[in-house]
Design goal:
The complex is a heterodimer. Helix content of chain A is 75%, strand content 0%. By secondary structure, chain A is mainly alpha-helical. Chain A has one domain. The longest helix of chain A has 29 residues. The two termini of chain A are 47 Å apart. In chain B, helix 5 packs across helix 10, helix 8 runs antiparallel to helix 16 and helix 11 crosses helix 16. Chain B is globular and about 80 Å long. Classes of the chains: A mainly alpha, B alpha+beta. The interface between A and B is large, with 43 and 49 residues.
Chain lengths: 118, 570
């Protein structure tokens, strides 16, 4: 009977979820959100893995490109210079880019799995 | 060249730009629409827009001209323009997008919490932007002059007017559509004529001597020398001259020229016979895109090649119109994927200019002497095919060239106007953005009309060198190094970028001397980039107390995937 005050609906609410989670078992997500020292360590580890991926691809790029002017100057083979600079260098550049993107996205996925505790 | 078709083609491109821009205007309503297209541009549209914006006059006309005049060493330019995007992808793309800033000064302020660094970065954006706008306007003037004989400043004025109108009216959203449209237009305008030219080359028996050094004349050819020049001969050569050679007048006589340098007066007609090697011209500054003060003296030293590689590989990330585009991606992952698509698109485009350069060496080698090498792309269809087909192809190329000037100029104008509207003019908002647009274009336009003669290759090289030695350290260290301080960033930008600027300014003014000193000043990137990095690191280490307090949180925002951040805010 709706008129009966004893039977009126009430809203039941618990304590905030985050607080409960913090008091429960430890979660890396919370550490990052609340910017604790441990949270910074997590971010640092992500930065380091991303920087390692970038430097690896950059090193390949340098090794690929840096000797070329010396080689062209030494061999004086203009035909090769036309072929390499006009065409052959572009496919490796795109492949390197795709390699890096795959690595960077995998790093991020691993990181999310780590901090979400899945 | 037949202007009956070329002029309507240019007019059509201009009209189409305005129309596509107007379409963008209908959907561009808020301030956020204006600057960053409300961040809803998908990777494919954005990649086409970035590529369309990036392929400038220097790419469309300049590379073919440079290769024609100076040989395959110049192919490092397109390789560097492309590889610059790879370096940008590796170190900057995703964190820059996640930083959530609109422009480079915004980035500097967000990272370092310093108004001074913000203002300094803004000054560099405006400086680099103006430097890069200058060659676009000059290229437009040159193209229109070659096509119609119009006075040189006219092309620049047309481009400036159209750009100011589209940018001020529609902002970034309309520019995204315009740029994407112009990428495909530019690709078509270079690809279709190239196919016909290669067919014509095949029909000609596919001669291979384009790759020979030096280039040689394939047929009897009379060349009219456009401006006084010094001709450098490695072997003796007999020519027929009408005019003044080495101070002596000739009227159609045979002149035996010994090996060495010979002075040819302007207006002289030289006729070469088949198989004569094409002599090399030493020329001063004449405002031509292909004759660079930095590289016009004999054989390029290896040092200059490495300087060029370093400047283009590292300079791309700091070009203001390139950086601004990354804020239009919806998130960091999309920014990365967009960059890969851009690499593919510009890589595909850059396969074409070398074709024009090689064919130019075969069929129009005398352009090295007439001072119009940049017109090679425009003139080749007429030279190799002839007739109505050549006129139509020539018109297509001319339209594409104008698309190149318009797209790069609008991107740069947008970036410079953004800085002016936010940091220089008194209040923010759309009206001040429009005023900023006008100001952003007025200065380089005035400079191109008044000064005129800065060689375009130098202006482009200067922009890349300054950006590589100022913004590259700021971005890379700002994103990856937590101990960067505001004084370090400011000193690094000033010392690195400032010294690069001073070096190329000295070269351009002809005060750089000769030999090693000249090479060092003409290609400063090799020492100014390490100098910029070193200053930034050392000054930062010397001022450890000035590390901004929020650094850890900011770096977390740069690097954490959006999924984590969105939940953190909720």
């Amino acid at each position: 009977m709706p008129q009966d005050p004893a039977e009126r609906r009430v809203v039941v609410s618990g304590p905030p979820r985050r607080a409960r989670r913090a008091s429960g078992y430890y979660r890396p997500r919370t550490e990052i959100d609340e910017q604790t020292t441990l949270g910074h360590t997590y971010v640092r580890s992500l930065m380091r893995s991303q920087l390692r991926a970038a430097l690896a691809v950059f090193t390949v790029l340098v090794l690929l490109v840096a000797p070329l002017p010396l080689v062209f100057a030494a061999t004086r083979n203009t035909g090769a210079e036309w072929a390499v600079l006009g065409f052959c260098l572009y496919p490796p550049l795109v492949l390197l880019a795709r390699w890096y993107v795959r690595r960077a996205e995998r790093n991020e996925k691993d990181f999310i799995r780590l901090v979400e505790d899945r | 060249m037949n202007q009956d078709y070329a002029v309507p083609a240019v007019a059509l491109v201009v009209l189409a730009t305005v129309l596509v821009g107007a379409f963008g205007l209908r959907v561009s309503r808020t301030t956020s629409d204006f600057y960053v297209a409300s961040r809803t541009v998908g990777p494919r549209l954005n990649a086409a827009a970035i590529s369309g914006e990036y392929l400038s006059a220097a790419s469309f006309l300049g590379i073919a001209g440079l290769v024609l005049v100076q040989g395959p060493d110049m192919l490092w330019y397109p390789v560097g323009y492309t590889a610059g995007y790879l370096v940008l992808l590796l170190f900057v793309a995703a964190p820059l997008r996640r930083s959530g800033a609109y422009t480079l000064p915004d980035f500097a302020e967000a990272r370092l919490a310093s108004q001074q660094v913000r203002r300094l970065a803004g000054a560099f954006v405006v400086g680099v932007g103006w430097l890069y706008l200058l060659p676009q306007l000059q290229g437009a003037g040159l193209t229109l002059a070659v096509l119609t004989g119009a006075p040189e400043p006219l092309g620049g004025i047309i481009v400036a007017a159209v750009v100011v109108a589209t940018v001020a009216a529609g902002g970034m959203r309309s520019i995204t559509f315009v740029q994407a449209f112009q990428y495909w237009l530019k690709l078509t305008a270079l690809l279709v004529p190239a196919l016909f030219l290669v067919l014509a080359w095949q029909g000609d028996g596919a001669p291979r001597d384009a790759f020979a050094e030096p280039a040689a004349f394939r047929a009897h050819r009379v060349v009219r020398i456009g401006d006084d020049l010094d001709l450098r001969l490695s072997r003796p050569l007999d020519v027929t001259a009408t005019g003044t050679v080495d101070g002596l007048r000739y009227a159609g006589q045979r002149v035996p020229l010994a090996a060495g340098v010979h002075r040819i007066a302007r207006g002289t007609l030289l006729s070469f016979t088949r198989r004569d090697p094409v002599p090399v011209a030493d020329r001063g500054s004449d405002g031509d895109m292909s004759t660079s003060l930095a590289s016009g003296h004999g054989k390029r030293p290896l040092y200059a090649t490495y300087g060029l590689i370093l400047a283009t590989f590292l300079g791309t990330m700091g070009l203001p119109h390139v950086v601004v585009r990354f804020y239009t991606s919806p998130h960091g992952v999309a920014a990365r994927r967009t960059t890969v698509a851009v690499l593919g698109l510009i890589g595909a485009f850059y396969l074409l200019p070398p074709v024009y350069g090689a064919l130019g060496r075969l069929y129009a080698p005398e352009l090295t002497l007439t001072g119009n090498a940049d017109a090679a792309v425009l003139l080749l269809p007429g030279r190799m095919i002839g007739g109505l087909g050549a006129d139509l192809l020539g018109a297509l190329v001319a339209g594409g060239a104008f698309a190149a000037f318009l797209s790069t100029a609008s991107g740069l104008t947008l970036a410079v106007a953004g800085v002016l509207a936010q940091d220089v003019l008194p209040s923010r908002g759309v009206r001040h953005f429009r005023l900023g647009t006008l100001l952003a274009m007025a200065v380089p336009l005035a400079a191109s009309v008044l000064v005129g003669g800065l060689p375009v290759a130098d202006a482009v090289g200067l922009a890349f060198a300054v950006s590589a030695s100022s913004f590259c350290p700021l971005l890379v260290l700002g994103i990856w190094w937590r101990r960067l301080t505001p004084p370090g960033a400011a000193m690094g930008m000033l010392v690195g970028g400032g010294s690069a600027f001073a070096a190329v300014a000295a070269t351009t003014a002809g005060r750089a001397g000769t030999g090693t000193l000249h090479a060092l000043l003409a290609w400063p990137a090799l020492w100014s980039v390490p100098l910029g990095f070193l200053t930034m690191v050392l000054v930062s280490l010397a001022t450890p107390g000035r590390v901004p307090t929020g650094t850890a949180a900011i770096l977390a925002r740069f690097h954490l995937p959006e999924e984590l951040r969105a939940e953190a805010k909720a």
